Amino acid sequence: MKIADLTARPVVTIRPDATIREAAALMARAGVGCLVVAEHDRPVGMVTDRDLVVRAMATGFPVDGRVDGVMTTGVVAVDRHADVRDAIAAFHHHAVRRLPVVDGDAVVGLVSLDDLVAGLSKVFADVTHGLTAQLVFPHGGDEAPVPAVSAPT
Amino acid sequence: MRATPGSQLIVTGHHVGEPDRTGEVLEARGPDGTAPFLVRWDDTGHVTLLFPGSDCLIRDTHRDTHRDTHRAGAPEEVPS
């Protein structure tokens, strides 16, 4: 399974010089809790609703301050053509919940742990359906049952 | 910030006592050796695509001089 199969929702980006207030308003309007801070589609940071609370509100950071003052820098991303296993490894090794999906150096999507669980759940469901079918309709079901063979004494 | 394959990438610790994280740049995917960088981390061996922030340094291990360490966003030195 490819990353592109999991990223159905468009990514919401914001400029680094946008204000905290604009970031919060954009989160509310778009119904998301995470924005990719991008400059000409190139990711330079990530900001979450928790960042706005913990790094801005809790510290008295002005709501008209720049969003790049509270964002997380050093963005770990995943290529849109990469395998889902690459995203799983990145989630594990970098302790993040969201990964920007990039095409070259441009952000084109966002994959979250939730997306990953939902996508893999569908795969597990398909496997389960196959297993259930084999249990209900075993191979050779129309043939006579195999006689029991006892071990020689 | 520019790097070449083999350069060392250092992510400085954010808290007191937190160690730096280091890795080897395998590939620079931006134009002219700029980010994003494909990095193999020394502590886990895992490979990830990184857009470095201001907490990252590049050390060119091919030319071990003081001029070879660049901080992201910092102006590059002009040779005298």
From TrEMBL, chain A:
Name of this protein: Unannotated protein
Alphabetized InterPro entries for the sequence: CBS_dom, CBS_dom_sf, Diverse_CBS-Domain
Position of the signal peptide: none
UniProt key word Electron transport: no
Keywords carried by this UniProt record: CBS domain
Keyword Glycosyltransferase: no
Domain CBS: 6-63, 71-127
Automatic annotation (TrEMBL), chain B:
Record InterPro entries: DUF1918
Organism: freshwater metagenome
Domain DUF1918 stretches: 1-58
Protein name per UniProt: Unannotated protein
Pfam family, one: DUF1918
